[in-house]
Structure formats: structure tokens, C-alpha cells
Design a protein that fits this description.
Layout (H helix, E strand, L loop, with lengths): L3 E6 L7 H14 L4 E6 L15 H15 L6 E5 L5 H12 L2 H5 L2 H10 L6 H15 L5 E4 L4 H18 L7 E4 L27 H9 L20 H9 L2 H12 L5 H27 L2 H30 L4
Helix pairs in contact: 2-11, 3-6, 3-12, 6-7, 8-11, 9-11, 10-11
Bound molecules: tryptophan and iron/sulfur cluster.
Length: 327
């Protein structure tokens, strides 16, 4: 039996390079070694702003087209939708009985969300976000949860919830470990961290006529106002992308050209595009095949959710027995 891995992503729609290099690429690799469960956290998408609820189905299909295009495969992993496994909600309810409110109030993402979104009266669901996440995870008893560093407090809480439950009702849940993803720095076109909400993202689905101008207008080292001004690749966001996509030889050529003003930024960006376009083009081609058949995507998710549900049901039977809810 292979160790199990579980992770989830909120359905925000099309996947950008930051999501891909920060998470999905790693999920794909984990498929080789682990029994992987990956899900669409559509309930979590409602916790901060439910006014966009109607977009969730379309966003789910768009995101799945990207998942499949980069190599997540229903033959190798269980790909499913949170709300199609309602046992997550039942476990969340039972956890809510044993977890103090104060544990949730001190989770850093809670305060951050309130500040960032300027929420006057945060919902019960927002407070419960990390507890729902604990239920998402523990219900599958995974060994590892691959996440970015921002999610570490949630994994720590998950472990505390497991201990608290086990102490109260008996040893049901093993404590999973976070599996931290080595994330390269992926800047957006304006030099800030790539994010959908900043409007600076490069999407896996961008066709060349969108991708090329995004790169050509991307922020560079501001010291290079004129072609004759030398620059510093180490502070240039374009060069961060070179580090990910361009092999060392041509990349070093660009670095030297930059420092000596031997090349212009547009030359440098052309070299980047030469190495960025083939891998992105290949993903985009595969993506188009999937997005043409949304019905097949939905079928994959329905099948995966049935498989996930069998595991979730077995855990819930154990949980109900442990708590004493069986008649
Ligand atoms: N909170 C995670 C995020 O924003 C998404 C998520 C929900 C998740 N449930 C999970 C991740 C369970 C890992 C495991 O990225
Ligand atoms: Fe950035 Fe390249 Fe321009 Fe240097 S030459 S500032 S690395 S884009």
C-alpha cells in the first residue's frame, strides 16, 4: 500500500503560472509515489465571498481543464469535488463540538482575511474555514498534505484537532505532515507576486497573442531606462522567469548582456519567450482538448467523487461509533 497524499484548491478559474509552479507541478510528480487525492474546495470558495457562487461550476471546469492538461490523471489519482462528498460537512460538525472557538480565532489567515477584505461582520463559515480544512484532510487519513508555507498554520491546527478528537473519543485519526513545496519565485507582469486579484497573471490558457504582449510589457530593472543603461538581472522579474524556464547557457548570456548593456530588454525577453512558449504551448494544446468536452471533465469528477466517498464513508462510520452515535 502506498502512502496517501491529499490536497485541495479553491476553484478560482483558470490556473496561472504561480499556481502551476507553486502547487500543481508538485502534485503531478507526487502521483508517481503516492496514492493521491486531489479535490476542488468549492465550499471553501464560499467562505469569504458568496456573491460569486454562481461562477463556481464554470470555474471548476476551467480549473480542471488545467489540472488535466498539466498531467493530473484520473487513472493515477482520485480527483474529486468537496461538496460531492458531504461526509466532509458531517465531520466538520463533529469537530466543531470539540474545538474551542479561541483556536480558530487565532489562526492568522482569519484576521488577515478580515483586514484584507474589510469585513465588518465575518461569517461563521470564515471562522470555521480551517476546521473544514481539517475535516477535508483527516477524513482520508493521509500521510502527507502538500501545501505552500501560507497553509502551515492550517496543517498545525489539523494535527491539534486530530489529537483533541483522539483524546476525547479514541484513536481514530493519524496526524498528517505538511509536505512543503519548494516554490520558485514567480513574479507577475508588474513584478509583484503573481495573483489573479492583482491582474498581473500569466495563465496556462493564454494564447500566444496574449502571452507575447504580457512578456513584452513586463516590468524590468527600472535602472534600464535607456538601451545603453546597464541593469541588474538579480532584481529583474523577467530574470526570475528566466531562472525557471531558460537553460543556464542562454540565461547567463542574457545576464552578462544585461550587466554590460550589450543587449536590450526586448532581446532578453525574446530569449525568455523562446523557452517559455514551447512548454506553455504544449499545456495549452492539451487543455483545449479537455475544455472542448466539459461533459468528460464532469464525468471524471463524478467518478472520482464516488471513489473518495467510499473512503470518507468508512471513516465516518468509525467516527460515529467512536463518538457513540450508533444506535
Ligand atoms: N485552504 C487551501 C488553500 O487556500 C485549500 C484547501 C481546502 C486545502 N481544504 C484543503 C488544501 C485541504 C489542502 C488540504 O490553498
Ligand atoms: Fe531584466 Fe533582461 Fe532587461 Fe536585464 S536585460 S533588466 S534581465 S529584462
Amino acid at each position: 500500500m502506498r502512502d496517501r497524499v491529499l490536497s485541495g484548491m479553491r476553484p478560482t478559474g483558470k490556473v496561472h503560472l504561480g499556481n502551476y509552479l507553486g502547487a500543481l507541478d508538485n502534485w503531478v510528480k507526487l502521483q508517481e509515489e503516492y496514492d493521491c487525492f486531489y479535490f476542488v474546495a468549492n465550499w471553501h470558495a464560499l467562505t469569504d465571498d458568496y456573491s460569486h457562487a454562481a461562477e463556481i461550476p464554470e470555474n471548476t471546469v476551467e480549473m480542471m481543464a488545467d489540472w488535466l492538461a498539466v498531467g493530473l490523471s484520473p487513472e493515477r489519482s482520485t480527483l474529486f469535488v468537496q461538496s460531492l462528498v458531504p461526509e466532509h460537512a458531517e465531520l466538520h460538525l463533529l469537530f466543531s463540538m470539540v474545538v474551542p472557538v479561541a483556536w480558530l480565532e487565532r489562526v492568522p489567515t482569519y484576521k488577515e482575511q478580515i483586514d484584507q477584505l474589510g469585513l465588518q461582520s465575518p461569517s461563521y463559515g470564515l471562522l470555521g474555514y480551517p476546521l473544514l480544512q481539517a475535516a477535508d484532510i483527516l477524513i482520508y487519513k493521509p500521510r502527507y498534505v502538500p501545501v505552500g508555507a501560507d497553509q502551515l498554520p492550517h496543517i498545525e491546527l489539523t494535527r491539534e484537532v486530530a489529537r483533541r478528537f483522539n483524546n476525547a473519543f479514541g484513536p481514530v485519526f493519524p496526524e498528517p505532515d505538511a509536505k512543503l513545496t519548494e516554490i520558485p519565485k514567480v513574479p507577475g507582469t508588474d513584478g509583484r507576486k503573481m495573483s489573479k486579484s492583482y491582474g498581473n497573471a500569466i495563465y496556462l490558457s493564454d494564447p500566444p497573442e496574449v502571452l507575447i504582449p504580457k512578456i513584452k510589457t513586463m516590468i524590468t530593472d527600472p535602472a534600464r531606462k535607456r538601451r545603453s543603461d546597464p541593469g541588474n538581472p538579480e532584481i529583474c522579474p523577467v530574470f526570475d522567469l528566466h531562472k525557471i524556464f531558460t537553460p543556464e547557457g542562454p540565461r547567463e548570456g542574457c545576464a552578462v548582456g544585461c550587466r554590460t548593456a550589450g543587449i536590450g530588454c526586448l532581446d532578453c525577453k525574446d530569449v525568455l519567450l523562446e523557452h517559455l512558449r514551447p512548454p506553455l504551448g504544449a499545456i495549452r494544446e492539451r487543455r483545449q482538448k479537455f475544455i472542448e468536452k466539459p461533459q468528460e471533465i464532469i464525468e471524471i469528477l463524478n467518478e472520482g467523487s464516488k471513489k473518495a466517498r467510499m473512503v470518507a464513508r468508512a471513516t465516518l462510520e468509525e467516527v460515529r461509533r467512536a463518538v457513540g452515535l450508533e444506535l
